Amino acid sequence: MSLTSKPLTAMPPCANWSYPTSIRFGAGRIKELGGACKSVGIKRPLLVTDPGLAGLAITARALDIVRQEGLEIAVFSDIQPNPTSSNVDKGLAIMREGGHDGVIAFGGGSALDAGKAIAFMMGQSRPLWDFEDIGEYWKRAETQDIAPVVAVPTTAGTGSEVGRASVITNEQSHSKKVIFHPKMLPVEVICDAELTVGLPPAITAGTGMDALAHCLEAYCAPGYHPMSEGIAVEGLRLVKEFLPRAYHDGSDLTARAHMLAAAAMGATAFQKGLGAIHALSHPVGAIYNTHHGLTNAVFMPYVLAFNRQAIDDKIVRLTHWLGIADGFNGFVDYILKLRAELAIANTIAGIGVDDQQFTRLAEMAVADPTAGGNPVELTAGDCKALYEDAYAGTLRL
Prior knowledge:
By secondary structure, the protein is an alpha/beta fold. It has helices at residues 33-39, 51-54, 57-68, 85-97, 109-121, 201-220, 226-248, 253-269, 276-288, 292-306, 308-322, 327-341, 358-367, 380-392; strands at 15-17, 22-25, 45-48, 74-76, 102-107, 149-153, 165-170, 175-180, 188-191.
């Protein structure tokens, strides 16, 4: 027998993982959706999705798969791109009226976040905002009746399918809030790259840059968490190698699969922390209703430049791992070239943000829970200056 190794045939990856939850990963595994529900005791699931997905063939197929297992299922899709508390309230009312005992969160980040919040609120008598990710607010929750969630991502970006929180917009304050509880983590996840094939290039780009932002900010966040850092670095490598492929050829199942993995890795890694990219993006998304991942992508180089004094050595080390030349400046140049390849705007003006509310946005950004993870302590003045630079296209390297 020859000891010479032979390369394996390039096929989309397929595996079962139990970290950070139970994940069924591989093309075509949506066929296991009904069985996944039954394995966690769900008999009457509510499928929570967004209006754009509700009428598509992939959703109809998912419903058929569940019904073939003898389960009664209904659909809730009244969800905005940046889900609001009223979306959660409506879904909760439908879940209770229908006697549903679990949620299938099916879609991108908005559907996943809304579905997780609805399932969590099934067990609560207190209002949603009492569980904001502040201190130990999560300990206020009544855990007995929190409904189980089976998550099925149809985009490769937020990684919410492996997260313990939901980002929900408070319509009164026009601000995004992070709702957190350990039992918000879905109990089963199906990552099927075939479900992402129909994504248009612009959505592939925006969601992919969200995964990149999660990995990058987790890697740069201060504090000691080498496990998260290691996950973040491999997630960055996967994005670098496979996001352009997925963008240029949406039918590339291998690239789509690796981007699903990168998204889950980013959400796993960012328990270490996020930072100014997200702190600046959340207020913009809440007020201007911009796409979250796209907004992150626009702010990314400006925040890198702002944080340079604290992260220069780490970014240089990262460039060696990723095969990027010229150190910190080379990494920023890589980000700029990647954005250009993905047809992403250079400024927030290019995504519909005006220059009339920078003071208000800055005050919201510095109060955002992600601001505390930035490598350089943020002030409202810093945030306002970053908004101004991102609007004018001024990159201060």
